[in-house]
Amino acid sequence: MKRIAAALTFFTRIPLWKWTEIPQTYYSSVVVYWPLTGWVTGGFTALLLWLAAQVFPMLPAVVVALTGRTLLTGALHEDGLADLCDGFGGGTTKDRILAIMKDSHIGTYGVIGLIFYYLWFVSLVVSLPLEIAVAAIFASDTFAKTCAAQLVNLLPYSRPEGAKNRISYERMSIWQALIVILTGLLPVCMLTYMDIFMAMSIIAPIIVISLLILYMRHKIGGYTGDCCGAACLLCELSMLAAVAMIYNVQIL
User: Fold this and answer.
1) Measured between alpha carbons, how far is 50 from 184 in angstroms, rounded to an integer?
2) One digit per residue, pLDDT tens: the chain, 252 residues?
3) CB neighbours of 114 closer than 8 A, spacing ≥ 6?
4) φ and ψ at residue 7, rounded to 5 degrees
């Protein structure tokens, strides 16, 4: 349970460290429980959307849900997306890209990347019926984390000096990989229960993470923590886009 508490402490602002002592070594395996934290973040976001939609139109309801998730996670993955956009957008060499990503200031590419992410997220969710939108948010949050977690298994860490937060993720064993896959896929079953064709939506984030792995290997020879956060949001967005495409094709 303390390993799960470590993951929730690392990936959210829930202060579990106030009530239980978490060994520092447990943080190196938090990626194993990353999709499980998606049950909390995705579930909370989906619940907020449903509650807000009872009193607001769909557009402000989505904004309420996104605001709640941002407060819960401390914009951890959004920070990673901004850093990745700045680094890969402004850097031409591995060293320069990593230096830009390490800089705490946000640049033009980072701002534009976040704007487009939120525009896509909001427009996609608003295009869906409430019930499907709620299930899609829950499923995409968890499965995106499953996909992004594969960076740890398939790429080396890029920075020779180690992570800037002094936490290096360990590669997973077969059993740990199974935990990641199962905890990420179970919420997808809820979405598939509503519409069997929605099962095809998981193809999109699988393609996205495959392309990101190839791109990161080419540009910086591996991954960083920012890459993991950015990959999570991009996989989530691709899955929401796939859900919206499947839904709209069916109603034509």
Assistant:
1) 21
2) 778 888 888 999 988 767 777 777 778 888 999 999 999 999 999 999 999 999 999 999 999 999 999 999 999 999 999 999 999 999 889 999 999 998 888 999 999 999 999 999 999 999 999 999 999 999 999 999 999 999 999 999 988 765 555 566 778 889 999 999 999 999 999 899 888 999 999 999 999 999 999 999 999 999 999 999 999 999 999 999 999 999 999 876
3) 78, 81, 82, 85
4) -65, -45
